[in-house]
Amino acid sequence: MLNQADDGSLSGSSNTHPSTSANSPLIFQNSCTTKVKPLLLSQQWKIENFVPVMKFALPGQCLRSNLFRDQMLPEAFWQLCLYPGGKRAENANHVSLFLKMSSTSPTREVRIKVEYRFYFLSENGSPLFSNVNVGEFHAKPPKGGHSWGLRNIPRQKKRKDNVPNLDSYGEFLQVLNCVRSDGSLMVSCRIELIPDISRIRCVPTDESDSTMPKKMVCSEYFKRQETALNSGNMADCTLECNGQVIQVNKFVLSTHSEVFKAMFAHEEFLENKEAKVVIKDTDIDSVRMMVRFMYCGDISFSSNVEGVMMLAERYQISELKEMCEQFLCSRVNKYNALEMYDLADMYNCYGLKEAVVCTVQKNKDFILNFPPWESFKETNPRLMNELMEQVVRGIDYSPPPFKRQRFYCCKQESCCDD
After folding, report:
1. Which CATH number do you get for residue 222?
2. Is 342 within 8 Å of 383 (Cβ atoms)?
3. pLDDT at position 348 over 90
4. Using CA atoms, how far apart are residues 212 and 209, in angstroms rounded to an integer?
5. 65 and 130 share a domain?
6. Above pLDDT 90, what percent of the chain?
7. How far apart are CA 377 and CA 256, in angstroms?
């Protein structure tokens, strides 16, 4: 025990016994846990015939990967941008590689700090080149995008004899050390971040401190779901489209759709009284794909992805709509860009709009002389103005400042391209 002396100092008392509670575990009446889980995203991108691409590419010419994102971070999507001839004239004879983050809404500001890893992979998937950096991505209106990456990929030291036709590309021998035997370059990117911590829920400790695995998936469960869908056993409702009928269960539909949930929760609704939902303005195959997604969680797209997206929007099935949008983003080209932009506006798909804007930026001359452009201007003047505004604002050629970041495997300077 500590006693206070006359001079104000503390001294120990020798005739007291040590407290038995000091070594006892503390017991709290209330305890809680905030479960923070990093979000991991990745993309693999194959570029064919990289040897001639490397030789003939001019500084500033850019190859772009498909857009990718995660439903846990719906406000942002990502894209790899590779410049085979370097991003600028001073980067000539080097490869520039950037990771671009864009906001899914042109009016939303998004700010995220991430760790991103670049790899060039061999045939067996092992990294021939790797680099890791941390960057703060800040996308703000009106541009809505921000990039971090490497302007000068370091040249490798050892030549690979199995790269085809390298004798005529002597000046690029060291850079092309990462090219595969089939002439392709395999680029991989992995992103790690923490989602907005203000959205993370705090739970009582006894709710989160389970020793059981947090998530286990049984493949047989989905097989049984598929069997139940195909057989119609225990179904208590029907979906009718163009005279064809699908036997379904109200519980499954209500679980995945707020619209179906509202239908079956109110007795006065005709759909609930008759246990039948008539779906118009679509085809039976699209309805089957929507129902399969709600039962089994997967979908295989064919030519009717637009019909599935329309149903996902109508019945508010957000995960299905996002999968449709991602599929359409991968199919945008200079021939269908205007049609895709119209579709994106109809169903409020900001990611698809951004994919179209990127395509138009790279193919302006072709699209402005494409016959459907005149029809697009006449029938959709609002969309035409919106599209061209995004195309103009989305291009920024101002040189970004150099900023040092953390390094991994090779000493390569990471730079911001805002």
Report:
1. 3.30.710.10
2. yes
3. no
4. 9
5. yes
6. 32
7. 38
Q: At what angle do helices 337-346 and 371-379 cross, to 10 degrees?
A: 20
Q: At what angle do helices 305-314 and 318-329 cross, to 10 degrees?
A: 150
Q: Decide: 311 and 284 in contact? Cβ < 8 Å.
A: no
Q: How far is the CA of 363 from the CAs of 147, 368, 409, in angstroms?
A: 21, 9, 37
Give the distance from CA 320 to its chain's centroid.
15
pLDDT of residue 279: 92
Report whether the peptide linkage leading into residue 38 is cis, meaning its omega lies within 30 degrees of zero. Answer: no
Q: For the segment 126-144, what is each residue's pLDDT rounded down to a tens digit? A: 888 889 999 999 988 777 7
> From CA 291, how far away is CA 225, in angstroms rounded?
11
Q: Do residues 185 and 72 both lie within one domain?
A: yes
Q: In the listed set 269, 302, 329, which residue is the last one of a domain according to the structure?
A: 329
* Number of alpha carbons in the 13 Å side-chain half-sphere of residue 362: 16
CA angle 385, 386, 392 (to 5 degrees): 85
Q: How many CB atoms lie within 10 A of CB 263?
A: 19
Encoded tokens for 148: 């971090």
Return the pLDDT at 69.
82
pLDDT at 9 over 50: no
Looking at 288, 312, 329, the residue that finishes a domain is: 329
Q: 55: domain CATH number?
A: 2.60.210.10
Length of the chain: 418
- Structural domains of the chain, count: 3
CATH number at residue 387: 1.25.40.420
- In angstroms, the CA 286 to CA 309 distance is 9
Domain identity same for 49 and 184: yes
| Residues paired with residue 68 on neighbouring β-strands, in sequence order | 78
Q: Which of 116, 118, 38 is nearest to 73 (CA)?
A: 38
The residue range of the domain holding 360 is: 332-398
Record the pTM: 0.49
List Cα–Cα distances, 72 to 40, 54, 144, 202, in angstroms: 10, 37, 19, 17
Domain membership flag for residue 213: no
